Amino acid sequence: MATTPTPPSEAPPTVVLAKRGDILLKLGDANLPKVSLLVSSGALSTVSPVFEDMFNARFKEGQSLSSAAPREIELPDDDPLCMTILCKIIHLQIDDIPRQLDVINLANFAVLCDKYACINAVRPWSRIWVLELLPATHIPGYDKLLMISYVMDLPDEFFKVTQSLIRNRTFCVDMEVAAHGHDFIPKSVFVRLQKAQVLYQNQVVDTLEPRFGSSNGLTSTCPESSTIVKDYFSKLKDRGLWPTKAMVLTQYRDQLKSMPSLVTSKCHCSLWAFCKTAPTLKDTILQRMNTIIDSTQGICLDCVYQDNGKEGLKCRIKHGKEPF
Ligand SMILES: [Zn+2]
Ligand SMILES: [Zn+2]
């Protein structure tokens, strides 16, 4: 069925953000819904040097701005939804600002705020939206939180996002998704994430090797022990844990959790051998895995900024020497 085109005479709805506004921002293009925002040039100029320059350049002497006849400015390249939210925040019209923003809109919002150099003005909101999305590690586009927290200059959230990516991804973060079409994030961040994933994966895989005091328990002469060892490796194999391969950190743990207990019978040998630890082996390994997963570090945003040429910064999160 053919759609009826909107009559050209139909004026887009105007959202009044400043009653005595002197600028009418016209948003949207042929593909995006159109909307006009009546705003105050003073409010926008206060938080955004880009808007300030724009108004100064367009309205020179003799063309002063007035609320009697607001000047129109077309911004067809800017996302109407994001620009409306941004202008509402700037004009403190916050009653109907969404409490949640999906990751695509949030990424667009971050790009817009960077373009207009007004990251500081929106920080409390960007924090709320990022924190809301942080636990949802499996939503499509989750990796964009890396770019969002980087561009929005949120050190705690950047640490948590990187920590979550290390815990919940295998080897790589989807660079294309994360970058959202822009090259804000230095390549070194992706390299470090990959290094961290390898580091923690190796540590977790290492816990699967049955240890026994200083020896690995596999060379014991106790016959019961060698039966248990065989049983252990065959159960690991059933769960895809042996031979070891790259997996998401939490997946190693979940697979081990679902592994049936080892078959053990009381062994009366006098050896300090695998038969003695087998009954508690699974729990011991789970504990070690949890300790490693809980200790996973994230990346310090300020260290990344400094590595990429920003000088005189102090780390806003406390951290020791980063292990990757
Ligand atoms: Zn034994
Ligand atoms: Zn640091």
Give a description of the structure.
The protein has 324 residues and is mainly α. It has 13 helices and four strands. The chain has a four-stranded mixed sheet. Helix 1 packs across helix 2 (49-58) and helix 9 packs antiparallel against helix 12. The protein starts with 13 loop residues before the first strand and ends in a 17-residue tail after the last helix. Mean pLDDT is 89; it is low at 1-7. The protein binds zinc ion (ZN) (2 copies).
Sketch the topology as an H/E string, one letter per element: EEEHHEHHHHHHHHHHH
Helix content: 40-55%
Gyration radius, rounded: 28 Å
Tell me the overall shape: elongated
In DSSP terms (H or I, runs of 4 or more residues), the helix count works out at 13
Low-confidence parts = 1-7
- Please give the number of β-strands: 4
Q: What structural class do you assign from the helix and strand content?
A: mainly alpha
Bound molecules: zinc ion
Strand content: 5-15%
Identify the strand order in the major beta sheet.
Answer: 1-3-2-4
| Average pLDDT level | 89
Q: What gap, in angstroms, lies between the N and C termini? A: 57 Å
Q: In this structure, how is the largest beta sheet organized?
A: 4 strands, mixed
Protein name: BTB domain-containing protein
Organism: Melanomma pulvis-pyrius CBS 109.77
What is the topology?
Layout: E1 14-16, E2 23-27, E3 35-39, H1 41-47, H2 49-58, E4 71-75, H3 80-90, H4 103-115, H5 119-133, H6 144-151, H7 155-168, H8 175-179, H9 187-207, H10 223-238, H11 249-257, H12 274-294, H13 301-307
Parallel strand pairs: 1-3, 2-4
Antiparallel strand pairs: 2-3
The chain binds zinc ion (2 copies).
The site of one zinc ion has 8 residues, from helix 10.
